Amino acid sequence: MDKQELIKSLEEKKFPKHVLEAFSRVKRQDFIPYTLRGMAYNDSALPIGSGQTMSQPYTIALMLSLLDLKPGQKVLELGSGSGYVIALISEIVGKKGRVFGIEVINELFKKSKDNLHDYKNTRVLHRNGSKGLPEEAPFDRILISAALHDIPEIIIGQLKNNGILVAPKGSRFEQEIIAIQRKSKTEFEMKKRLPGFLFVPFIEE
Asked: What is the pTM for the complete model shown?
């Protein structure tokens, strides 16, 4: 599958135009090992080193759609890997938006810093993401790109009012993608639960 075929496949699945445009602009091959570049536009997960994977494009497009991203927003991704999803979000929120990534694995953190050199509205930090990024909170959107049994309150609490968090939640081999919206200081609403996904586990402290 080449890039245009992948975009057409995602288009047929009725993903929003802004998500499709981001996939069109970002080169997935720049975020995977050189030896796998011939597979860059397959709709499949790919290894990125250190026992971690980049999710398949369909799953990424689904999570970005659930986030309901808007230009100018401030977004946090926990478990940002080689930086591919950060680049996609960067394209959607635009120059007035800000995108923060946290990656605990040093090898991937270094790769993502290089990969995102031209994305001036992004910043990636090398640390454990289990406490979120309180010094930059609150965020319009939070994406967690590895599976947790439960979403820590300290992370959910970093959402702005009406902010949305999207994450895979569940056991090691049975997970669902959830979307939670903050309605007030103490009220949160489960917007969506989609079963049948498998992510690498979140590395907790």
From this structure: 0.96
- Considering the candidates 44, 50, 55, 130, report the single residue annotated as catalytic: 55
- Per-residue pLDDT of 53-81, as tens digits, reads 999 999 999 999 999 999 999 999 999 99
Task: State the Cα–Cα distance between residues 121 and 98, nearest whole angstrom.
Answer: 5
pLDDT in tens, 12-21: 999 999 999 9
Measured distance CA(143)–CA(123) in Å, rounded: 15
The residue with tokens 């040093």 is 106
H helices of the chain, where?
3-12, 17-25, 57-67, 84-93, 106-115, 153-156
Write down how long the chain is: 205
End-to-end Cα separation, the chain, in angstroms = 39
Whether 171 is catalytic is no
Q: Token pair for residue 161?
A: 């009012």
